[in-house]
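Late entry, evening session. Most of the bench is empty. Finally got around to the prediction I had been postponing all week. Sequence below, unchanged from the version circulated by S.P.
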Amino acid sequence: MVNRHQQDPYLRQAVDELTAEYRGRLPRSVVARTVLGARQDLEGQIQPEALAEMLHRLARYRLDATILPLVGTC
């Protein structure tokens, strides 16, 4: 089965960009799962023209929230 993020250009772009941005801090699997969750939450909630930007922003916010508790434990 092909991963959904490989079929959806918005997902693919967000996963690729955020994986590069969070390299060394979060694995690609976590980034992909977070982006997919954000995409599902945004479905039908925003204008299609805004999807790429809002997906990137929401996923980045959630990834940052994932990292912050980890930083405090070191």
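Two things to note before I forget:
The chain has one domain: 4-72.
The mean pLDDT is 88.
Will write this up properly tomorrow.
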